[in-house]
């Protein structure tokens, strides 16, 4: 392994044994070979550590870090801290890189010195490696990405390659923004560098039931909204209301924290709109959020929300649809 590799490949693993061999193998077979491969096993209990050890025994570029569970954000920040290369490439333990991924991203960053982060499009696959059809495209230019800073998504996170020192200067990932720590990072990077995506499907991104984005859709949507509000304050030269490592408070408490009366109520309405096409989320964690939003509205403004009750019913969430309908009727 080179004393100073061109890329640090960063993989955080937690119980990814089912797909981990393919994920690691897809990194090892890249056409661009000048990299170190840091793999944190974040306290896995499914044999992931044995898979990592087997690959490390035959590839000196792999540096395993085996330890107790500390969570994804702690793992990613440890990987940033221990990286020896000027470029930092993310990877997940259940996805697959195309062989030319690193070569394409290194070439882009070499040709665009002002660009600090570049992702790629993705091919969506299921848990059995079967293609899922359309999807996986992301905005290409910095201007297109900047236009989506408020809501995202900007990148397929495991496809990203960034300049290591830029990640360190920005403070890495913040644990306050659970399940959207990457979006918060993109917001903080946006003021320091330009960003881009390559219009090539250089990663096979796995989509399946039980993923974080599906299990924690409400918390993720809330934290994305709060991260934008914090970004707006930073852009105005004000202190960041959310200190790194602090827990994001409830919606009513945001008014005082951000010194903006009505902020919590406004964000609640935005969350309902954002979750409108996720009936499982609205029937679960988001049900109370939706009902509180309905009850805060004057009766004359409730009519458009009847569509959500119908959508819940069509997707089999009859109990939730009934409760929402009763709230809309003022019962």
UniProtKB/TrEMBL annotation:
Q: Which Gene3D superfamilies match?
A: Spore Coat Polysaccharide Biosynthesis Protein SpsA, Chain A
Point out the signal peptide segment: none
What domain of life does the native source organism fall in?
Bacteria
The record ties this protein, via Pfam families, to:
Glycos_transf_2 (PF00535)
Transmembrane parts of this sequence? none
The alphabetized UniProt keywords are: Glycosyltransferase, Transferase
Keyword DNA-binding: yes or no?
A: no
Protein's UniProt keywords contain Transferase: yes
The molecular function terms of the Gene Ontology recorded here are: glycosyltransferase activity
Family annotation (InterPro entries): Glyco_trans_2-like, Glycosyltransf_2, Nucleotide-diphossugar_trans
The Glycosyltransferase 2-like domain extends over: 9-167
Family membership: Belongs to the glycosyltransferase 2 family.
Name listed for the protein in its UniProt record? Glycosyltransferase
Tell me the organism. Novosphingobium flavum
């Amino acid at each position: 392994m080179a004393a100073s590799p061109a890329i640090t490949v960063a993989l955080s693993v937690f119980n990814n044994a089912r797909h981990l061999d393919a994920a690691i193998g897809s990194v090892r077979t890249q056409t661009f070979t000048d990299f170190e491969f840091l793999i944190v096993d974040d306290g896995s209990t499914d044999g992931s550590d044995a898979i990592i050890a087997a690959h490390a025994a035959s590839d000196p570029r792999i540096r395993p870090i085996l330890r107790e569970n500390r969570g994804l954000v702690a793992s990613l920040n440890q990987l940033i801290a221990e990286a020896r290369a000027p470029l930092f490439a993310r990877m997940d333990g259940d996805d697959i890189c195309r062989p030319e991924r690193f070569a394409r991203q290194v070439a882009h960053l070499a040709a665009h010195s002002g660009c600090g982060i570049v992702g790629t499009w993705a091919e969506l696959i299921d848990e059995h490696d079967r293609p899922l059809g359309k999807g996986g495209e992301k905005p290409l230019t910095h201007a297109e990405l900047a236009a989506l800073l408020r809501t995202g998504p900007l990148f397929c996170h495991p496809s990203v390659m960034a300049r290591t020192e830029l990640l360190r200067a920005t403070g890495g990932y913040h644990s306050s923004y659970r399940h959207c720590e990457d979006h918060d990072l993109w917001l903080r990077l946006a003021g320091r560098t330009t960003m881009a995506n390559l219009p090539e499907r250089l990663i096979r991104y796995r989509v399946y039931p039980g993923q974080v984005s599906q299990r924690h859709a409400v918390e993720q949507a809330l934290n994305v909204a709060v991260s934008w509000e914090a970004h707006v304050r930073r852009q105005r030269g004000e202190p960041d209301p959310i200190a790194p490592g602090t827990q994001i408070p409830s919606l009513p408490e945001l008014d005082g924290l951000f010194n903006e009366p009505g902020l919590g109520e406004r964000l609640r309405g935005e969350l309902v709109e954002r979750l409108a096409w996720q009936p499982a989320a609205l029937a679960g964690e988001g049900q109370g959020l939706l009902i509180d939003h309905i009850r805060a509205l004057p009766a004359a403004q409730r009519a458009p929300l009847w569509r959500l009750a119908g959508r819940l019913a069509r997707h089999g969430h009859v109990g939730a649809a009934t409760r929402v309908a009763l709230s809309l009727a003022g019962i």
